[in-house]
Amino acid sequence: MPTLRVNDLDIWYDTQGNPEHPAILLVVGLGTQAIAWPETFCRGLVESGFYVIRFDNRDNGLSTKLHHLGKPNTLLAVLKLALRMKLVAGYKLDDMAEDAIGLLNALGIERAHVVGASMGGMIAQIVAARYPERILSLTSIMSTSGRRGLPGPTRAARKVLFAVPPDPLNHDGIIDHFVRTIQVIGSPGYPTPVESLRQRISITVKRHLDPVATSRQLLAIGASGDRVALLQSIRVPTLVIHGLADPLIPPEGGRDVARLVPGAVLHEIEGMGHDLPDQLNPRLVALIAEHCHAAQDVVEKVAVQA
Fold first, then answer.
1. Which of 175, 253, 196 is closest to 221 using CA atoms?
2. Which one, of 106, 97, 111, lies nearest residue 21 by Cα?
3. Beta pairing partners, 113
4. Do the beta carbons of residue 128 and residue 234 sit within 8 Å?
5. Mind listing the pLDDT tens digit for each residue in 28-85?
6. pTM over 0.90, yes/no
7. End-to-end CA gap in the chain
8. Cβ–Cβ contacts within 10 Å for residue 222, how many?
9. Domains of the chain, with CATH numbers?
10. How buried is 203 (Cβ within 10 angstroms: 0-12 exposed, 13-18 middle, 19+ buried)?
């Protein structure tokens, strides 16, 4: 099992492609494992000339679980947020951003492009803002600034987000639960066949399942506040991708990110929800590869002039 010691945690990772090529660090979202980045997506980036790194965030997948932090009271946390009360969490998104940089350090990578989806987009935004000397470009997918007042999840999306999974020993029940979740938040314009969904979810569940850890990550998001000021400070080339049919983080979230980051480019996709459907992989790869290559060209021109 490939892990590296980062910030006193064991972080699982894998790499694809030529390590001599520019690196792209992929950051996954809430309760999501590194393998959620589709193989076809990763291969597409490799074929586009990049060295691709994906990893399990702390408290998820095959990385270190922080069981000693206990089980958060999610409903109480939501109530505190609504009342603008302070939330206390065992870790925040800033800590997860430091994990990302720590992984690059451990791999000996000086600079990388960073691509994050959903919560991973939030982490990637923090990385780009706080470590500009380490980041070549930022791609924020189906994410948000966290600004108070932005539209939240639809009622159906909120319901599945906070639904309690069945008994972990009930394998079929767990799979049914996550199939329903993806059917609610996924891309209506690019639906994934149910059998394909069940197969992917089965692989994911067998690899790791810990709803309590996901609750701790959710608490980390709530306790971290918004990123309005941080986004305004970002100076690396930034691409924002968002689905117009996203019921979990509505398009206004992506638009706010693009509005706040100087020079950011916003690309909205009709029919895309809160997932990475196979049908969109070629388009997503092309967008990200073009963005990263353009950023790389700028860096190389500056280096020559210096």
1. 253
2. 111
3. 24, 137
4. yes
5. 999 999 999 999 999 999 999 999 999 999 999 999 999 999 999 888 887 788 778 8
6. yes
7. 42
8. 18
9. 3-152+215-305 (3.40.50.1820)
10. exposed
